[in-house]
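hey can u check if this looks right to u? its 310 residues, i copy pasted from the old doc so theres a chance i mangled smth
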Amino acid sequence: MALFKPSAILDGMDEHLATNRALWDEWAEINARSAFYDLEEFKRGGVRIRDYEIEEVGPVRGKTLLHLQCHFGIDSLSWARLGAKVTGVDFSERAIELATGVAAELGIDASFIRSNLYDLPQHVDGEFDIVYTSRGVLCWLPRVRPWADVVARFVRPGGSFYVTEAHPILWAYEDDFTLKFPYWEREEPSSFDIHGSYADPAAEVKTEKDFEWNHSLGEIVTAPGSGRPADRVPPRVAVRGLGGPVPGETRREVVDAGPARRDDAPDVLAEGDEPRLIRAGRTGPGPHAVPGGGEATRRDAPPEPRHGRT
């Protein structure tokens, strides 16, 4: 299977990706200090991933897990606390420095690598039992098919790929639900003015704009199996979405409420090449076993809007 060449994917996008990288370097510093992430509380114990993720990913103790676009590592280190052998990847140098520092401070065995996602096969060898990616990440990728190629490269035969993400139709609307932005993937990104960070809207940020690309649900769900030999298609691909708005809600309120906001939140679960629709139920916080005995009590994971617009 021939992967897309990173040089071809990124051709003409250097300015866009360099701007985004500079923004995420700033956001990593801001977010690590924010009450939104509450890093100091995380250091005292617990995990910051949602119960439905833990349930749907399944037992991770002793399994290898690759976390794509991991930011400064709280989710990655949460999986490690649950027993996974974690490798986190992000394109932000400052985020990886913070993640590495937190792991060392806490004595958690996890590896962090700075790499553009499309270049990852040049920096990481081997395969993983689980490839995982979480909320607010796909809009930063110019192309979704090459992203799926990278995923397929790293999921071992019989392994699984899990992504939890907002339904992309939300990103086609302005905050007042006026249809304004592309729903399907296109070459040119949308650009937005930046005001602080989603974790701290009042923070001072030097980067003035970001660049984002939407990808339709069909493009996301079909990409992992498209044009791949059967033994390179992850046998389980789960995509969890958000519920739709109710009267009076803004788009931001829907996003901030999180995937388990109501019992009617739609999900797509693909088992092999037989996609089926499942429904998201509410799950409350509960204890989860951690390496070394004892329990890690899950704190409510913070919602993760994808950008810093107000």
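The domain at 6-297 is CATH 3.40.50.150 (Rossmann fold).
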